[in-house]
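User: quick one, fold this
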Amino acid sequence: MIVLIIGAMENEVEALISSFGAKSSDGNAFSVDKGGNRIVIAKSGVGKVNAAAATQKLIDTYKPDRIINTGVAGGVANDIELGEIVIASKLAYHDFHPLEILERNPPFSRLFTADETLVSLAERACEALGAKYRTGVVVSGDCFVNDNDVKRRLREEFTAECTEMEGAAVAHVCLINDVPFAVIRAVCDFANASAELINDFEQTAAHHAASITQYIINNIK
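Assistant:
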């Protein structure tokens, strides 16, 4: 089985490479064989277009059987904690308006649903590693959210647990290509005015997400 793991930023990808001990590189991605599976780790770049373009190119190149998008996010739920893992059950664009346009153009709706088997594996990983987690809606948009009013809208409109900039685009491309996927995020800030100050937690959060991803790979079938 070929499993593609995508991170957006350098620190997210470095955490993955460190977790898996990946060394072989073709210039665009790192790869390593684990338990009979070929693991490919790649950086997409930040934002929806970068994420979508990279995902499609990587699918065309490596023909993965599963895709996991991992990294950090801003917490939206009021009771969420720094370092907490959010496993996406569904994803949406929070800056695509009106979202009903998607619903009028099948096969996609305003929400992209993650693979149930991978979601279940991610939940088992968190439980096995003693990581605090929740499963729910993750929203993506081309902006760094650090505003309480925007944060409130995301919670009210989508019941979002966290927000980031790539997951929904990766999910969209995976669904187009019929590739099962999961999106896993570790909370590194609270998507409000303090977000810039808390961002030094990014590296720790990236390693939390990478650890969960490693457990999934070790138990994937």
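User: anything notable?
Assistant: Residues 69 and 183 are 5 Å apart (CA to CA).
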